[in-house]
Amino acid sequence: MVNKQIEARGIHDPNVLLAMGRVPRHLFVSEALMDQAYGDFPLPIGDQQTISQPYIVAEMTQALELKHEDRVLEIGTGSGYQAAVLAEIVFRVYTIERLHSLFIKTRRLFDSLRYYNIVTRYTDGTTGWKDESPFDAIIVTAGAPSIPKILIEQLAPGGRMVVPVGDRYSQELIKITKDEKGVRETNLGGCRFVKLVGEHGWKA
Ligand code: SAH
Hints:
The chain is of the alpha/beta class. The protein has one domain (2-191): Rossmann fold (3-Layer(aba) Sandwich), CATH 3.40.50. It has helices spanning 2-7, 14-22, 54-63, 81-89, 100-112, 149-153, and strands spanning 43-46, 49-51, 71-75, 92-97, 118-122, 135-140, 155-166, 171-179, 182-191. It is globular, with a radius of gyration of 15 Å.
């Protein structure tokens, strides 16, 4: 998967390629879908949610320009696959899920795979995680109606954030960079995610 689908499509960050080679993606989907786990497409994970396509996980992770000592916040734990990829690279990952069943199932999976550097929380992630802020990087893995300003506030100086913005029909992946000159936005191209639902997201 890593050589044929990820590297061939232009992902070059060695940390990202190594991390994705290490995380056993088949353990993040149900038994019935395990034989499809290494294809480059999203898969259902229950509760009408999906585990993202591997290429998108690679692209978003690379865009975060991670260093080992970084602390990263993820909104939308889902299957836990993206968080596990992050946890292979950085010191600590904080991840928030709003659906209780997924939160419980994925927490157990992190424990069984010994991802002790992943801190999980069951709540609406659109308001971020103020007590643990600022973060070096923030990744939103559900589509927001607009860039949640409250998350930009929780980015450290020099921090990077990626967030899909748009409705169900058309979304763009936006990268935010925050430095002493201000906040910069780059459009990384089209993407497709389930809705970010919450106070600063879509209404349920
Ligand atoms: N990163 C996940 C992708 C899961 S799909 C993975 O690797 O599998 C997006 C997830 O975002 C879903 O589980 C959905 O329930 C969750 N989500 C949507 N809105 C949310 C919110 N406001 N706070 C936290 N999680 C949210």
